[in-house]
Design goal:
With 367 residues, this protein is of the alpha/beta class. Helix content is 35%, strand content 18%. The protein is built from 15 helices and ten strands. Strand 1 (45-50), helix 2 and strand 2 (71-76) form a beta-alpha-beta unit. The chain is globular and about 65 Å long.
């Protein structure tokens, strides 16, 4: 998931500004901050290449250092697509040891380019069923999230109108000119929503569906930030911007975040989730082929699916842990939505069709 996914991370600026995230100070073998790949196999620094929105508690990564002896150095590289592109350009001579942030919409591209060395991380038997997509263990699942339509509860209550629940509902006349979504060509949630409509309507039916959405007044904007914080009337940012769209493509984790950062915190989330419009994303990490610190990279992959790290994930990256024994924080269980049957599309199918699907979508929804 790209930077638009973890929108509340801006409230954690102090943590995000740290380059070396954990450890007991630099050693002679450490790289300087932001310098890329670790030095030789004896290095006590392991470099994690990731998208801009990776975040973890300092204490949690300090625990990794104490247990393994390795300090984590973070190399942020833009959104998920941009970060992946940079690794493809430098494959064989990677800038770090582990790459985190490739999701199921882009996984096949990473695998086809041979970016990763196979490694079966310790604890894989605890990950949720269906999250492993590579039998060769070139990548390790780390978290999941659901891209879904969110709705402004106040708007629908004031209008005495039931919010939409499914993809089919969104094309009904009572929801005309209410939905804003992101551009599927350059936005992770936009692409996820497109894939959700393909899973729902079929490869033969999604274009007709989007023609109906277009006729029903769907608005397409460049990215999540604009859609959620400028166009969506239910978000804190949208209220300030006097937004007028009460439906937006966002995430199932958006309502808990609206509560978490409200002052004072409300007893009920101001937004809801249309659970019949969700597409499941899974994010992966992998040991980069040619990594200078392969041992440290393996230790980090083990740690990413440890219970300690997994229980730190929700309130730092606003996604769900991938291991079955990790507990969700109370704010997630109280204000979040459980998506029982999210739409999915096999990574190999996405790989074979992604470009033509996006081109077809663009000709309908944007032009």
């Amino acid at each position: 998931m790209n930077t638009t996914k973890k929108y509340a991370a801006t409230a954690l600026a102090a943590a995000l500004g740290v380059t070396v995230l954990a450890g007991c100070g630099g050693s002679d073998d450490d790289t300087s901050a932001g310098s890329g790949a670790s030095k030789g196999s004896g290095s006590k620094t392991v470099t994690l290449v990731t998208h801009d929105s990776f975040n973890a508690s300092e204490d949690v990564l300090k625990q990794f250092t104490e247990e393994s002896g390795y300090t984590v150095e973070l190399l942020k590289s833009g959104d998920a697509g941009a970060a992946l592109n940079q690794e493809i350009l430098t494959k064989g001579s990677p800038r770090g040891d582990v790459f985190f942030g490739v999701d199921n919409t882009l996984l096949s591209r990473a695998l086809d380019n041979g970016l990763f060395t196979a490694y079966e991380a310790k604890g894989l038997d605890r990950v949720a069923e269906g999250t492993e997509q590579d039998k060769e263990h070139r990548v390790t699942p780390v978290d999941t999230g659901d891209i879904c339509v969110n709705y402004d509860k106040k708007y629908f209550a004031d209008k005495k109108l039931e919010p939409p629940r499914t993809f089919e509902d969104l094309v009904k006349p009572e929801y005309k000119n209410l939905l804003v979504t992101e551009n599927a060509a350059n936005s992770s949630p936009g692409l996820g929503f497109l894939l959700g409509t393909i899973a729902s309507q079929g490869e033969d039916g999604y274009q007709d569906y989007w023609k109906k959405l277009k006729a029903n007044g769907v608005k397409v904007v460049d990215g999540w930030e604009q859609a959620y914080n400028e166009e969506f009337s239910g978000s804190a940012g949208g209220k300030k911007a006097k937004a007028d769209r009460p439906l937006v493509v966002s995430y199932a984790s958006s309502p808990p975040v609206e509560v978490l950062y409200a002052d004072p915190q409300p007893k009920e989330a101001p937004t809801g989730v249309s659970t019949g419009t969700c597409f499941r994303q899974t994010e992966y990490a992998g040991l980069l082929k040619g990594a200078k610190n392969e041992a440290g990279g393996k230790a980090l992959l083990d740690f990413l699916i440890s219970k300690t790290f997994q229980e730190d994930v929700p309130l730092n990256m606003f996604v769900n842990p991938v291991v079955t024994d990790a507990k969700l924080p109370e704010i997630f269980t109280e204000f979040g939505e459980t998506v029982e049957k999210p739409a999915t599309v096999a990574p190999e199918k996405i790989a074979a069709n992604r470009e033509q699907w996006v081109q077809a979508w663009h000709s309908i929804a944007v032009k």
